[in-house]
Structure formats: C-alpha cells, structure tokens
Amino acid sequence: MMRSITIEDLYSIKFLSRPRISPDGQRVAYVVTTIEEHKHEYRSAIWVAPTTGGEARRFTTGSANASNPSWSPDGRWLAFVSNREGELTRPNLKGQKKVGKGKPQIWLIPADGGEARQLTCTEHGASSPVWSPDSKRLLFSAQVGPSDEETPDGKPLPKVRVIDRLCYRQEGVGFIHERRSHLFLIGIASGEVRQLTDGDCDNSSASWSPDGTQIAFVSNRNEDRWRIPGDDVHVLSLNHGQPGILRRLTDTSQSCLSPSWSPDGQTIAFIASPKIRAAEHFYLYTVTANTKQPVVTCLSQEFEGSFMDLTNSDVGDDQLAPPPGWSADGKTLYVLASQRGSTRLYAIPSHGAGKRPVILTPGNVHVRDFSIDQSKNMLALLVADPVHPQEIFVRSTKLSAEMRRISYANDDLVNELILSTPELITHTGADDWSIDGWLMKPYDFDPTRKYPLIVEIHGGPHTQYGYGFLHEMQLLVAQGYVVFYANPRGSVGYGYDFANAVRQAWGEKPSIDILQGVDEVLKRGYIDEQCLGVIGGSYGGFMVNWLIGHSDRFKVAVTDRCVSNMASMFGSSDIGWDYIEDHTETLPWKDLDRYLHMSPLTYVQDMHTPLLIIHGEQDQRCNLEQAQQLFAALKYMERDVQLVIFEGQGHGLSRGGHPKMRLERLRHITNWFAKYLQ
Question: What is the DSSP letter of 149?
C-alpha cells in the first residue's frame, strides 16, 4: 500500500556515490552508504554491478567503511580507502602499524573477489588512489605535518594554535594551517613509498599521462596563495619513479579543477573559473601539455551552463566536478554541466562548443558523477531525479545510445512512497528577467481547496534548484503544503551574467524575483494568502532574513545556517575575507555602510515574522555568531524567535550531518511550520 514519506524515511534511503567503471567496461564499482538505525551512524561499502544487467553484489565486507574505488588498468585489482583494521602483510610496514592506526588507508582487493590487503600506512591517513597506466604503481594523497600530541595512555592533549595566515581553517575539516596535502607514489609489489610533491602548499586531483611519464595535478604555489585561493594546473615529470621537472601550465588568474589527459598525451582538459568575480561559473578548457609556451583554449565561452554539479539535493553532500572524459580519437570531451535546473552529461568537441552542445543524458535529471572505460566506449553515471534518489546507469558513448539502469538500491522504498513531481513555472522577476520556478503539490491535490504555501530558497547564491531529489521538500508536501522554489538571479545554469547579477546586491532584486514568483503562484487560486511560510539555508538563510526584514508577508519563517551580518562574516567565515570582499567589492573598514546596507541585521527592528533559527555549532562557513547576533537582537525586542543549535555539526548538516541531528532538524522545521500554518 502506498504511503506518504516521513522524517524517519531518511534512515531508509541508500546513498549511492562514486560510480567507477572497470577498464573492460563490464562492471561498475560504486559506494553504497546506509544509516545504521540503532547507532545513528553512516556505513559505507563498495558494491559491484555488471553493466549488461544482473544482480549487484556487495564487494567489501565488515563494519568498517569503504570508499573511493579505483580499478587497476589491467583489471586485476580494485583499490579503495578504508579505516578497517588488518594485519600488515609486508615486512617494511609492520613497524608502522601503530602510526596510521584508525586512519583511512588504501587497500587492495582482487577484482574477482578475495581477501583485501592494506597498501598504505601513513600517519594522517591516505586518500584518492590513482593507478599508473602499467598497474604497477599507485598515486595517492596524504597530509604531511605535525603529529597530534598524546598522553602515555593515548589521550589527546589540548593544542596551542599559532595562526599566521588568513586561510587557516576549512568547513567540514577544521584547522588546516599546520598540515599540507601532498602526492605520494607507492609500488604495488615492493611497497616502496616516495613523496612526489613538497612545500607549503596543497596538491590534489592527480592524473597520469597515458605513457606514465608525467603527472598532472592542481596546486596553488603562488606567493599570495593564503590570501587569494585558487589552484593552477601543474605537470610533474617522472624519471624512474623519481620526481623531475615541475611546470605550471596556467597563468594564476583562474581556479582550476580536474585535469584530464588526452589519449595522445599532448593536451590536458580541465575545468576553471576566474579567481575574481567567478560567480561559480565554471568553463571547460584545454591546455597544451608539452609545448614550450602552453596554449590555453576555452571551449565553452558561449554555453550558459556551469561545468560542475551545482544542483541542490539533500541526499548527498558532494558537489563534484569530475575530470572530463576523452573519446578514443581525442575529438570529443564528455563533461558534466549544470543548466536550467538539471545537471547533465554533455559531449563537446575538443576544438570548442557552441551555445547548445550535445546532451547525452536528456530529460529532467541530476547527473552527479560519471566515469569512462579504458576503450572510451562505455560510461557509468550516477543519476537522480526529483522522485528517485541517485542510482547507477550506463550508456555507450555513441550519440544514438540510451541510458540503462543497473542498480535498484532504493526501489523498495520508492515503490511504497507517494512522491510529488515538480511542475515547472516561469515568471517575470525584477527588470523583466525570466525566472524559472517549480511547484510541488500534495498527492491528493484539489484545485478547489486553499493550501498553505512554503517557499524554499537555495544557498550559494551560485547554485541551482531544479531536478535534484530533496527529502525535505517531499516531506513538507506530504504534510499538506504546496512548496515553491525558484532560481532567482545569482543562480547558476543561466549564464555568467545571470549568476553575477547579485554582486554588491545580495538582497534587493533577488527578493523581487522570489516574491513575484509567489505572486505567480497565488494567481492559480489554490493558495491561502494568509498562510505563507519561507525557509532557506546559507545564502538562502540570508534571503529569509532579508525578506522578513523588508516585508510582513510571511506568517512564519525558518532561517538555516544563515548570514545576518556581512561585516562580521568577513572575519568569522573560513572564506569570508575572500568571498565577502569579492561580492561587496570593498572592505568593511573602507565602506562599512555598504556592508551594513547588505546585512539583514540592519533591518532587525522591522522583523515581526515568527522565526526559527537553525545553526550548526561547528559551522565554519557561516559561523554560529551569525545566528547568535540575530537571535539576541530579536529576543531582546521580545519577538517570537527560537534558536536551535546542533552540537558538533557544520554547514552541511542537512545534507551529510550526524544522522540523528538531521532527523531532529526536520522535526523542528515541521513543528514550527505546523504551529503557524496548520
């Protein structure tokens, strides 16, 4: 019997990620994460499914988590990352067993199944395994830096942190100023480890050249790297496994991601956005790898999409930019881009794309990740839509091919739920701009009735709503609300100018875009105009604060991980000094009036809407003080306000926080809306 979705159904969803197709295109390894109900803990395991259809099977066993699957090019091994305990099988590692105990390390398991063995034993853990083309070596990333001090019985000692740079902590990680991420090379047979990069910089996204003699990666090695973030593409030559000449291929003006070698080893494709005024609009580029003067070419200048998955969902905390995949002849690139509510896979000529590149995943879908096999004939994709959490699909690279689904992890749950399919509506916003919005209605919707309306506002501002699966929205619809969400100016997927239009003006015209969308919904006649609610997170929380400070239109509001004071966010956010200056184009001590004008806290006296403030205690992106300032002001004025602080949680609470805290967050939201709207 079909039923409505509940808060507790969050614990029944299986979260799939990291689809990695085998070199021969016959199998896909992927990660399945579940929530252990009684312990309120995430559990991750690697599963494998045949691409031709058939039953998927769990590949890693035990209670320890496993992630980051990576096939060896010869098809013999699957490398993965796990924090499991095990006996070290090589003599040269036995003395290091205690050093890396309890940290995620890289393990190997035969591709046809069998016993896994531990490959690395680094002090702070290892991640991101990347095989050499000959399958004899493995690149990986590991942090280098001081050890944590402990008492003789193993208890951690408190730290004294000496900070001498702007970039010293990171959302979801914590303090980062003492350790750097470097690239290492390990021999599969010998176990010999060599550190390939060094220095006071971080290095990531490693990619082997086809002949195994060079490694491309991204790193910021500039003098101003702790003041102006953003990586360049570098290439390191190898001489019998030893690091050789290091070259920078890009000109330091961009933030570069995900380098990928062409089949002939002469060109590297990558994704990048400007360091300043980026608006999260990522372009697709190529750069010559072996010329004296590298030649950089933008392939997507006319395309309105952004080459990263920036579609919002709450069944995964990753927003990825997978490395572009090359066709066998080097003439085509396969790459993800977010456009008009969807994230899709596109086929783009390596000499450049026009305004409308070929779409390989048509429809209203959210493609979150992909990989390509060795022959460049088969793709594995991670695909979701508004009524299906992500599953694994495959398709040929031939343009005429269709996607085929090969995982069914969530079918039992989805088949018993009544879920709402969003309805696209387009309305006119400020300056007569066209704005996309979506409506979700209760399953027994009756247009002759009057329904309460809840408006959801996305964060960023440079992300997009659209066709991602959102448990929170489905839950609100199941409780009898009509839900409306839109992509006001500032959203990605509509071109650079649209995304950049909120610079120096976060609140004013975006609020018009949203409110005129509400007016469009009200014209339909089935909304109770006296029962309007609004909720938003991060920048969406900023917009909630802005709206209720400029209007009494909403009967109730929820602001989540919000921004309330732009001036204090400059110094309290892990990226505030860079991000806030970029969006205000000034500094708080040079033009405090502009900061105050853009701060919802300035208009707190005009806030009369009952407000629930939700915030993670360890939020580094929008610090807890943003919520505390707003709460203190409203409570001092004896307004109807409640502050809920989630212990130990960061900015991504709603998407990947502690499972129990995610349930409690949804309970507070639904109870708050029910109190005022039902």
Answer: P
